[in-house]
Amino acid sequence: MRAGIWNLVIEQGADETFVLTWTIESTGAAVDITGFKFYWTAKEKKTDSTYIINISTEADTGIGTITLSDPENGEFKMSLPGAVTTAYTFTSLYHNVKFIDTLSEEHRLLEGQIKLSTEV
User: Fold this and answer.
1) What digits encode the pLDDT tens for the residues 30-66?
2) Cα-to-chain-centroid distance, residue 87
3) pLDDT (0 to 100) of residue 1
4) Does domain 4-117 have CATH number 3.40.720.10?
5) pTM metric for this prediction
6) Which of 29, 68, 72, 111 could form a disulfide with 96 if both were Cys (CB 3.0 to 4.6 A apart)?
7) In terms of Cα–Cα distance, which of 94, 62, 61 is closest to 81?
8) What is the biggest distance separating any 2 CA atoms in the chain, rounded to whole angstroms?
9) Are 9 and 114 in contact (CB under 8 A)?
């Protein structure tokens, strides 16, 4: 499976929640993600060792969360609180969304760039 491209904008200082529904492109059928673990990471440079965004379904670190909101229908939510996005100063990030399935195999679902819309 090749990762899909997902470019997005984060508004500095805003609570951000991205609701994603994973479907099979050819049929439109939802992918059951029950039991999957998801990870969202982002860096300024792909070679950086420091993550600007690093959240997962594994634990709430206080910097954001991923929740399986309707796993049978392929829906999950990735959220960043305004207290976190207020501190963002980047211009652009590279990001990806990975998952580990019920067979413990890791895959990249999405990749792309994030732009920051700064506060006035």
Assistant:
1) 999 999 999 999 999 999 999 999 999 998 788 999 9
2) 18
3) 74
4) no
5) 0.93
6) 111
7) 62
8) 47
9) yes
CA dihedral sign of residues 39, 21, 114, 78? negative
- For residue 83, give both structure tokens: 């207290």
| Residue 99: exposure state from Cβ atoms within 10 A (0-12, 13-18, ≥19) | buried
Render pLDDT for 17-37 as a digit per residue (tens, 0 to 9).
Answer: 999 999 998 999 999 999 999
SS3 letters for the chain?
CCCEECCEEEECCCCEEEEEECECCCCCCECCCCCCEEEEEEECCCCCCCCCEEEECCCCCCCCEEEEEEHHHCEEEEEECHHHHCCCCCCEEEEEEEEECCCCCEEEEEEEEEEEECCC
